[in-house]
């Protein structure tokens, strides 16, 4: 039951989009067999056909490999029978009976050439060469005795064996030279440190000479045996057996190295010395299993068949390979699928057109109803469905719907009139509430500032009383100590000077506290001030710091307005901001001073003075605390400079702000009114 419930819920979720639109249901009903049935059939056909196609290719390469293996075994048998026939022939017997008139060496050379063998050797009971097609091998002991021993026991045998370079050189230096193959770098091959393959893969057979303790042995070297591998290729893949763009290939491997192959490189030349992939090598040579699958052969994908080659002891020593290029078959498969797809598309298009023609008579009226509802929802209350061409239930529904829309339009107009009157009353009450809120907020801010000033005033008074007295004692004793010591104080004069500076610093901190807490005691007279002149005077006072800090100054005067302010307090603000900017550029930089007209937030005319640097800027975490008392990011700062500047600016009716510039660095701006409300702070005007 729970499973059925989940299936039912899934089915409902799948049908949910269809339940939202009649048009969608009609279109789905008309096209579902076409849109779903045909693609499913095509996918099933493509999947089944692809699998059957791959099985067909594997079956073909299996049969090709069987043909090649059969031919290879037949060649082995033919070599064995040929040597057995020669061992039993009267011609060989005559050369043994009449050595003066008929040379066995000449007979062996002639028969080796006619049989396509690289050598024919006649061995005695000790396996020594007594006659040979290769004169250099006379007296040699045959290096692979297993075949010879089997023939001595009366069993004719033809098999494969691996000969070392020394064994090949003893038979013939030419055979050794043919077996020397330089290994080529092959992507995907098993890792190996070898650079050369010197061993030889020989197909050899032996037969006993009747009535004599002699054995005839002959063999053919398969390394670089192009004629032999080409015969296998032509036998397995004759002309016309493959598609036009495909090609078949055959290869003999010694271990995992191609020693005879029809595979060529794209630039030309046979791929002798290249190696098989590690995956194929592990399956065929490692596990002794045939490989019947696609495999990469010198950069191209081939449908490949590999089977192991065994030596006289049953050891896996190499592989026989046949295969054909996969791409033309894959193209043919996709071409067939493309034809099926085109036929499906044509059939689907025709069926879709017919189904749509029948469904449109129902969909069109429903679509007009839906479009009318959308227009009404968008605010067009005058939208109507209108008369429909048919006289059915949908036409009656459209007429009834138009009547409802007409009634809705008249009611909506009445509601709009009532809503307008209500909006006017709400707007009036909102303005009154906003004015009351603004008054309350201003009162709260003024109360907060007054409480803050009162608290800091108490702190400043206590600080001044508790600090100034001991500071005065320290300063007096320093002067007395220097006076009493006289010249004896010379060694510690730097320390005495440092102590005086620190005492003066303490006095300055206390003075700044009192200056903010009791502004009326520190307020100066107001006068007409040119901001450019105050900037110039401030630059003169900080000239030493600017020269030492390698600071360039850019001046941007975009206003000629005059401020009514305390010149010294304004100068104190600007000097503090300029020194902060210099300290923010320890490696030097550009100091930008600017002045331009800027109305205040309440619309009053004013002037904005800015000090900008191109240093590292202000950390986001420090931005909210810049103007808090005793907050500083400098190791030797007091945290009172910006705090005092803010108090001086606000006392003049202005605002000081800080921000980071998009191009880097920070900018501090002081906005001051051109006509400040002086009566509010009780300042005298000269």
Throw out a few tags for this protein.
686 residues, single chain, HAMP_dom, alpha+beta, five-stranded antiparallel β-sheet, HATPase_C_sf, kinase activity, kinase, 18 helices
* N-to-C CA distance: 97 Å
Described by the principal axes of the CA atoms, the overall outline is elongated
Structural class: alpha+beta
Please list the strands of the largest sheet in the order they lie side by side: 2-1-7-6-3
Major β-sheet profile: 5 strands, antiparallel
The helicity comes to 40-55%
Mean pLDDT: 80
* Continuous helix count: 18
Tell how many strands the DSSP assignment holds: 19
User: What are the segments in which pLDDT stays under 50 over at least 5 consecutive residues?
Assistant: 676-686
**β-strand amount:** 15-25%
- The value of Rg in angstroms is 54 Å
